[in-house]
Each structure stands twice: as structure tokens, then as C-alpha cells.
Design goal:
heterodimer; A: mainly alpha; two-stranded antiparallel sheet; about 55% helix; B: alpha/beta; nine-stranded mixed sheet; three-stranded antiparallel sheet; 10 helices; globular
């Protein structure tokens, strides 16, 4: 299982809490490798609830359809998928974006509609980590700009 | 609170830049002199509402404030599924907030039992969407009635004596009665249904995908009749029609806050993801006492049970 080079226990605890509350589970049932739909029994609207709780817990904004949208970015429709089935390029991009998913599940013939079946708790953990890093960079950038403006004045 | 069809923006010209202060009173409703209600609309299109739940919450708070002092708040359509299904709003307003789940489950349960009384209970009943609050509660209540229940997922119906199928298609196989309770529909291909299946559906979009076989009935499972003292005025009538209820019925979730306000409860019938069977029963008792009755419907019209064959005749023995 690859979820990140090092798991930040503070972040993980909040992620675990969000899942446990949203899905009505015990915390120990929420493991990084647990699949949302097959293992935790999540249904589509639970995804909304999970996103809402994570956004509140970390003061971040998780874009709707984030992973899929990012996978498609820069690719023409028929390079990413053909008639709902992911192409080799589409699979390669998803493999890169979802390192927590075992390679054998990102198989030839995977349909776009099946992507949510692959989501693990770790998928959301990774999204949170990326967004927190992004937020940190933006806040440093804002501080730097403010400092530069003060210096000019 | 929001209209069922979730397209009020098309009527009122709301766009993505609309502010929470742009909430609008759609119409008033009353039940004789016992209670008055107001239907408020939030200024967001469905995509925006699902994509920015914090903003949706701000709009809902603004709508509650604009409505004036309230004994209860009910959530409809997409307002009922965002921001923790009523939990986040409940932290911001003083009145109890109900998300309509208990009312939907009650109507669905009563309609399902009515169909079972017609067709018999010799075959299992499939409950699709049993992982969700409404489906879970209905599965539990049907099982408590002694009905053989099949659910559509290995994780559904935890703690219940039900058969867990591995997929929606496996769950519906050979079932005469199918309950569509998923929070989003499009769960099962029509071809997977038994040729004599009766689908009682509350999912939006509908549970069944594909062309419906001739013998299959798909009925709306959450309509309730209006008591004689239900008043709504011309705007209310228009709202009923535009929102898809029709002139003589409403969907159960609209009724839940009225029943809640009249029941003197300080806690809602349904909020968040949990919906206990006892809450559904409690809601049903109160709603029935006020004159609300579930009814099977197709579109705006009631669907008479007599139109469901009690049993499909077997193949003729004659050559």
C-alpha cells in the first residue's frame, strides 16, 4: 500500500474521523487501503458528505470530480477514453494520480464509470495532503508578495 | 425547502453569482389553522449546490432567517443531501432541522406493504440502495414485518436478517417487488427485472435504466395525499405543479417539517446519515393523525392497486 512517503498522523486522524462519522463506522474500520464502496459500503451521496467533512476539517476546497478531471487535463477526449473505456494513456495517468490503487485493478478495459470503485480512504488522504501543500505554497507566496510590496514602499 | 426539481434558477433567473441574500419565498402552505409553512428557494443551481457545500449552507441559513421565526425546518431536494444532510444547518439555526428521510421512508414502506398485500409475500423483496438511510430503514422495517428482504450490497443491512446480494442485478432477480431507495438512481437495467416486477421508486433519477418491459410497473413511492384542510393559494398550486407534485399530492419530504412542528418534538425525525426505524414509525403515526396518507402514483395521478395483477397466470398446460 502506498499512500504517501510518510503518513502524517495528525492529518490521518482527521481523515479517519471524517470517514467514520460520514459512514457511521468505527474508526478502526477506516484503514488507508479500505475501498469506499466495496469495503466501507459508501454510496454516491456519501462521497459528498465525506468531501464536506474533509473540507471543514482542513479548511480546503476539494474540486468536484478532482481526480478524474485532473487525469483528463491536457488530453483530448479520445486519448483519455474511447466509448467509456480508458485508453492506455488514460490508465497511465490514473496510475500516476492514484498510487494507492494496486496496479492489477487499473487494468485494460476499465470503464470511466468504474473509477469510483477504485477509491480508497488513502485516495482522499492523498488529495488532502496535496491540497494542504498547495495551500501552504499559496500562503507563502502571498506573504512573499506582501513583503516585496512593503519593501518597494 | 428547495423545490424538488431543483431548477428554480430557471424560473427566477438565478445564476452562479447569486448571493445568499437572494433567497426567495416561493409560496406559503397551511394545514387549516393548525400550522403555517413557507417554501423557500435557495439561489443556486444543482451543480453549484453540490460543488460548493459551504455556500449552499450559507444560502440555507439565509433562507431560514428570511422565513422568520420557525418551529421546524425541512430540507428538500439537493438541500437535503449537502452539508451533512441537515447537520451543519442544525448547528446554525435554533429550530430543529429535518431532512425528509423519515417521511420518504414512511411513504415508501407503506406503499410497499400495500403492494405486498396485493401480490402476496411468497417471493423476496429487493431493496436497492439499502446502504443509504432511507433504504436501510425500509429494509429493517420490512424485515421486522416478516418480509424476506434482499439487499444489493454485502455491507448493506448490517445487523439485519436479510439476504445480501452481490449486485443490484442479483438482488432483483426473480423478485416481484423491488424497492428503489438509492439516493441517486440508475442502479439496475430493466432487463434484469422479473417480467412481472413492480418497482416502487423514490430515486431521482429513477432506479431502472433502459426500456421497461411490458409487464413491469414502475411507480412513484413517496407521494402522499393532501388532507382536506391543506391550503396553498395560487402560488402554492403553481409550485406544486412546477415542482412535479401535481395538483392533488405532494412528496412526503415536504410534509415532514409540518408534522415535526405539530408534534412538539425538539428533535428532528431525520438528520444526517442515520435513520432509525423508530423515527420512521414515529413520523408515520404523527402524519397519519394529521390526515396524510401515502399513495402509489404515476406522475401526478394515483395508481390503483387493482391494476397490479394479483398473480401472473402460469403457462397453459394445454398444447
Amino acid at each position: 500500500m502506498t499512500i504517501a512517503v510518510q503518513v502524517d498522523s495528525e492529518i490521518w486522524t482527521k481523515v479517519q474521523d471524517a470517514f467514520a462519522i460520514a459512514l457511521g463506522l468505527e474508526e478502526d474500520e477506516v484503514t488507508p487501503e479500505a475501498r469506499l464502496i466495496d469495503d466501507l459500503g459508501a454510496e454516491s451521496l456519501d462521497f459528498l458528505d465525506i468531501v464536506f467533512r474533509l473540507e471543514r476539517a482542513f479548511d480546503i476546497k476539494i474540486p468536484r470530480g478532482g481526480i478524474e478531471a485532473e487525469a483528463r487535463e491536457g488530453m483530448d477526449e479520445d486519448i483519455y477514453e474511447v466509448e467509456g473505456v480508458l485508453t492506455a494513456a488514460g490508465l497511465a495517468k490514473l496510475t500516476e494520480l492514484m498510487p494507492e490503487v494496486p496496479a492489477e485493478e487499473l487494468r485494460e478495459g476499465l470503464r470511466v464509470s468504474e473509477i469510483p470503485d477504485l477509491f480508497r480512504v488513502a485516495t482522499f488522504y492523498n488529495i488532502v495532503v496535496v491540497l494542504l501543500e498547495q495551500k501552504e505554497r499559496e500562503s507563502v507566496s502571498v506573504l512573499t508578495t506582501a513583503a516585496e510590496e512593503r519593501a518597494v514602499v | 425547502m428547495a423545490v424538488r426539481a431543483a431548477r428554480p434558477g430557471l424560473l427566477f433567473g438565478w445564476q452562479d453569482g447569486s448571493r445568499p441574500e437572494d433567497v426567495v419565498k416561493i409560496c406559503g402552505l397551511s394545514l387549516g389553522t393548525a400550522i403555517e409553512g413557507v417554501v423557500m428557494g435557495v439561489p443556486m443551481e444543482p451543480e453549484a449546490l453540490l460543488g460548493d457545500q459551504e455556500r449552499a449552507l450559507e444560502c440555507m441559513v439565509a433562507a431560514v432567517e428570511a422565513a422568520g421565526p420557525l418551529d421546524a425546518v425541512g430540507l428538500g431536494s439537493l438541500c437535503a443531501v449537502v452539508a451533512g444532510r441537515g447537520e451543519a444547518l442544525a448547528e446554525r439555526v435554533s429550530a430543529p432541522v429535518s431532512n425528509g428521510g423519515a417521511a420518504t421512508a414512511w411513504a415508501l414502506l407503506e406503499n410497499t406493504i400495500a403492494v405486498l398485500d396485493r401480490v402476496g409475500r411468497s417471493r423476496p423483496v429487493a431493496v436497492l440502495g439499502a446502504r443509504g438511510p432511507v433504504g436501510g430503514a425500509v429494509a429493517a422495517l420490512l424485515a421486522a414485518e416478516g418480509v424476506e428482504v434482499r439487499v444489493d450490497h454485502a455491507r448493506a443491512g448490517r445487523g439485519l436478517d436479510v439476504h445480501r446480494a452481490t449486485s443490484p442485478e442479483a438482488a432483483v432477480a426473480d423478485c416481484r417487488v423491488v424497492v428503489g431507495a438509492a439516493t441517486t438512481g440508475a442502479m439496475v437495467q430493466a432487463s434484469a427485472l422479473s417480467p412481472d416486477a413492480v418497482v416502487i421508486d423514490v430515486a431521482i433519477p429513477g432506479t431502472v435504466v433502459g426500456r421497461k418491459p411490458t409487464g413491469v410497473q414502475i411507480l412513484a413511492g413517496e407521494a402522499v395525499t393532501l388532507p382536506a384542510d391543506w391550503q396553498r393559494g395560487i402560488w402554492g398550486w403553481m409550485y406544486h405543479v412546477l415542482a412535479g407534485y401535481g395538483p392533488s399530492q405532494v412528496f412526503a419530504c415536504l410534509v415532514e417539517p409540518l408534522v415535526l412542528a405539530l408534534s412538539d418534538r425538539s428533535t428532528p425525525f431525520s438528520q444526517g446519515r442515520t435513520l432509525a426505524p423508530e423515527q420512521v414509525r414515529a413520523f408515520g403515526d404523527s402524519a397519519r393523525a394529521l390526515g396524510f396518507q401515502p399513495r402509489l402514483a404515476t406522475g401526478w395521478r394515483a395508481f390503483p392497486l387493482a391494476r397490479i395483477p394479483a398473480a401472473i397466470p402460469g403457462p397453459s398446460a394445454a398444447g
